[in-house]
Here is the input.
Amino acid sequence: MSENKITELRQEIDGLNSEILNLLSKRAKLAKEIGGMQSSLGQSQYDPMREQEMLDAIIAKNQGPFDNATLKSLFKNIFQASMEVGKKADKPKFLTSRATREEDTVVMVGDVAIGGKHAPVLVAGPCAIESKEQVEMTAAFVAKQGVKLFRGGAFKPRTNPYSFQGYGEKAMQWARESCDKHGLQFVAEIMDGSDIGLFEEYVDMLQIGARNSQNFTLLRTVGKSRKPVLLKRGLSSTIEEWIMSAEYLLSEGNTNVVLCERGIRTYETYTRNTLDISAVALAKLETHLPVFVDSTHSGGRRDLLVPLTKAGLAAGADGIMVEVHPNPAVALSDQKQQMDFDQFTEFLNETGYHTKLSEKRNEVYGF
Amino acid sequence: MSENKITELRQEIDGLNSEILNLLSKRAKLAKEIGGMQSSLGQSQYDPMREQEMLDAIIAKNQGPFDNATLKSLFKNIFQASMEVGKKADKPKFLTSRATREEDTVVMVGDVAIGGKHAPVLVAGPCAIESKEQVEMTAAFVAKQGVKLFRGGAFKPRTNPYSFQGYGEKAMQWARESCDKHGLQFVAEIMDGSDIGLFEEYVDMLQIGARNSQNFTLLRTVGKSRKPVLLKRGLSSTIEEWIMSAEYLLSEGNTNVVLCERGIRTYETYTRNTLDISAVALAKLETHLPVFVDSTHSGGRRDLLVPLTKAGLAAGADGIMVEVHPNPAVALSDQKQQMDFDQFTEFLNETGYHTKLSEKRNEVYGF
Amino acid sequence: MSENKITELRQEIDGLNSEILNLLSKRAKLAKEIGGMQSSLGQSQYDPMREQEMLDAIIAKNQGPFDNATLKSLFKNIFQASMEVGKKADKPKFLTSRATREEDTVVMVGDVAIGGKHAPVLVAGPCAIESKEQVEMTAAFVAKQGVKLFRGGAFKPRTNPYSFQGYGEKAMQWARESCDKHGLQFVAEIMDGSDIGLFEEYVDMLQIGARNSQNFTLLRTVGKSRKPVLLKRGLSSTIEEWIMSAEYLLSEGNTNVVLCERGIRTYETYTRNTLDISAVALAKLETHLPVFVDSTHSGGRRDLLVPLTKAGLAAGADGIMVEVHPNPAVALSDQKQQMDFDQFTEFLNETGYHTKLSEKRNEVYGF
Amino acid sequence: MSENKITELRQEIDGLNSEILNLLSKRAKLAKEIGGMQSSLGQSQYDPMREQEMLDAIIAKNQGPFDNATLKSLFKNIFQASMEVGKKADKPKFLTSRATREEDTVVMVGDVAIGGKHAPVLVAGPCAIESKEQVEMTAAFVAKQGVKLFRGGAFKPRTNPYSFQGYGEKAMQWARESCDKHGLQFVAEIMDGSDIGLFEEYVDMLQIGARNSQNFTLLRTVGKSRKPVLLKRGLSSTIEEWIMSAEYLLSEGNTNVVLCERGIRTYETYTRNTLDISAVALAKLETHLPVFVDSTHSGGRRDLLVPLTKAGLAAGADGIMVEVHPNPAVALSDQKQQMDFDQFTEFLNETGYHTKLSEKRNEVYGF
Here is the structure.
């Protein structure tokens, strides 16, 4: 008998569900209408004072069985969902979102195409530019191996103010010269918006480093440039924060943005950082931007460069970044993680970059 | 004009809010009624199949403007809130929750009262029991300083299987003898449910270590005992998981539970763990159980023992745990964080334990 | 002139380096000799009292320019290095280490070979065994797809003591029957050492879960069994702790151990855990054991199963574990991350498991 | 017999220890001498090429029993220790270090003294400055309660580029006016070095936010100012990185620096961040700078403001920062964590700030 009664009560609940659905839909349409009017009046759609009043009115009428906190939470959800409906109708969605742009963005750095169906590219070069000779040796070597994008730091963000901070403009001149000579695109990190002129002169792709990933002033400045940007994920940025930093760039008009996962900070100490391989896949799912993996900084260990690169590509990465130095043991920074030339050749072989290269340069792996 | 229109639409929304409230309340009452019937039939209230059917029916009727995902989420919230109403009516709340028991639980270990208005207690002793002499020396010393609870490991959980694992029963005999001689209560870690007989014979308070904080089998076994329990938070347990581990103990009938925050695992390497001082305050807010701070393991540094102890007490801790050893430099474990006797005396002075003690033993600081 | 002087002083330093080398080598040989004697006397090689005396004697003679703390640190390093030399000579190295055993260990589960050059295997099945029908349906389905290893929980570790805890022995009987019928090997989690008899009767491979990864009592018990073991990494275990947990198993004689990375706890909330892909590569480098990736628990999201599986295999994983359920929406646990049958077929296609399977069952992917 | 032999060998080792000590000391003196010469020649003391040569020479002579890796590590330690000796002699130590300056730094903000023996101060005010009225109401209220330092954001760092970003200069004018009227010192966050002129005009203390804590360009610019600075710890900065960021400020000449712990990013989700109370104590131990605790952002929950404030003060904090807003429910940011006026009064009572205040304004709690 009780079972029959349950069935009966359940039918009543089904009826109530339908009624609630009707009222919620009606409510959302009204909210959308109001939202449209507010937009045309230049008002914000979010009005916390109004929300507070509505909640107060609802609570005043509450006769149970819900407690007030539960009711507030249910209605807060309804308010937000209604507002979302309004936003979707009136406002542009996030520019980085795949919901806004379904097809993959392809970023051109010179004649090198990044993203979409293009083969994954390789960015290689020393951590820091230390001398004219060092740049030239490295550039000549990597270019011969088929690399098209050359990295090298002219301004180095260093935790310790007395550490080597980079050779600045001089370093950029050396690198520019070698890149031109060997047909390479030059990628370098910009740390200060006031240097933008300098970077537009010398550099082909601007890098925003992990420590500046939420330097919103710098993001806006670089967003106003039209140079391609390589945006590293912050040391402990969530995936959402990382994408929102890219949104800063796009919101200022620069759509040539490549995201770069470089490992996050965790409790593990065997590796310098923990490569968040899920972030690579999720960034590809949720945005239309190309995504790179910085294999060097993710692990901070030479013996991880091959497996992390392979894993990155398997997860969908559009490119890989590694550090190469003529003599890592005496480098001014990152001694333990840069590859020497022999190690780099071996790296190309083991990851398959090299083999592919000899067959079809510029087609399979994009360099 | 648009502003007038907005006011008008808002009044319509107010009306809808009231109607939605009525329907939701009606729905919740029905759900509660069904829940009661199911309980008396011995059925679970949560029926995912039924939920799925209701969601399907709602989606089938959806004509916008909400998208299906938003609707599912709104109704899932409504289902959960309704079920909560049912649960509150029919089922016991969590036994650890302050909503279940408003007044502080006072745990008695022998004649030592822990929690409530009682002064914070101090648990002191060596990391591991290493010899009859070491236990006796330490017990005699700390008892003379007014300490009432003596800690010492007989079975040691060690990461490395070849590290010193404790002297087992022999160690418990030594400690029992010294504790009896000096009027101390003996606290020791139990690692295996099958040792419960041994522990009930020798020990006054069972400790469950961080690595076993989600060893649910051990929790159930110890929950069946009536010995007081000191439950450490897991290395990376959330506050919620920690409290749920205590719920295992209470659900088996053992209400003599003291929670112990001992630092969590983070990226910081200056300290062994990161003392989560908020967890102390939140455990006091959300449960009625006493809460300790293990100052030794939280920081892993002698120079932090005083400030972490003070901070712990300021945040509301009912007790502090520290390690004391006659000669820490040659200890078999935790060399860097145990205090020697002079350091312990200084610790008592600097934290104020000692001063208070000379005035009003057993009253102000409970020892 | 100063430059010449520098060259001269550097030559003096070179001479000192050589002399220091000679003395250190001489010292290490003596330490090794003493270590051998102590071993034959049954004494521990590590004698903190003796170390303290040596440090005191050194400090007493210190006349600068090093401060005492620096000297202590330098000599502590020398002591440790000397002791290591002794250990390497006299003691077995860690049994898990590749330095102990260079070739890959191949673990046999029934007739399924795991590790070494064998194709990566797939473990599939529901999170929990919920009914005879559910097991039979799932087992029949995955076996038809070529899967050889079937997972399913009979005892479930649950944070909340009132959550569904598994159907225990009954569930194991159901699963055993279906596995026998469909030629599957049965993998299930053991939570309590006292259940070992039950598991040896019904199960082909014992799983040790993340929450028990440092339950040393359980590790020793399972180590005494000869059943193959799947050892999950702890929620926040370091790579070193994970390997040491395997060492517990090997030290008790069980060499049939497969490591399983299942994501670690980080600040990121987009994913349930953060798959530590570096850990897969490092476990392969530092141990000779096979390594699996649990794609389901690492991400906790269905949309990550394909990329995480691909990345895991690219990083060198010897197998992948996923959850499959006839109707995930109504599952008693893990509703959001289990695949239904269609999703599983698609998963096999997208990861390439399926294609390979139709060509060369049992050869390419080992199932 | 073996025991006698051990004693004999140990005496030999004691002799070797002495000889090694002599050689190491001699070596360090030479290294120091070379370091001095290099300094006067303007050369860097760290010469990785030279280190590599020395290591190569040592390895070439190695005849065991140490393996090459162990020897490299031992000698690398010796090289570093020697270099440290040189650095201590020739170079300024870190300016932030207590080894450089033993006494506490007292930072003056207007007539408010922070640090040393001065009573802990309180910084209060809204998250963001939202209107002339809101600032005036809040400033009037907190001043009446005895607060001397007023906080309020004019430029807000926001994850989402479309969120409210602050009213900029207009907000600073409103705040300046109200601060002058009520005798308050105005603290506001600077996000961009190019705004330094604006801030020097309107603001009494510059705040550097968590997201800019490693914006080295901004640190250098603010270091060139002489305005007092409140430097927040980065979202996931280590204690060492945080102190190094302060070193950037001091290295440019600005010694008026207050450190501010504001919680770090961990896996815990009950709290917005995890207050690292050990960091407060360690910053006081290792630097001579005043240290604040931001109770609002650490927990992100109103119910934690009192215990976190008490814990912060117990651990040695020189000041506390909290958010106060006339009507938090409708605030443009941080709705859930700002206090309203009644809550603030209660906060002052419960933490003891208020009681002390009525007795001895400006003496006990510095306001």
Remarks:
- Chain C touches chain D through 57 residues (CB under 8 Å).
- Strands of chain C lie at 107-109, 112-114, 121-125, 149-151, 185-189, 205-208, 229-232, 257-261, 291-294, 319-323.
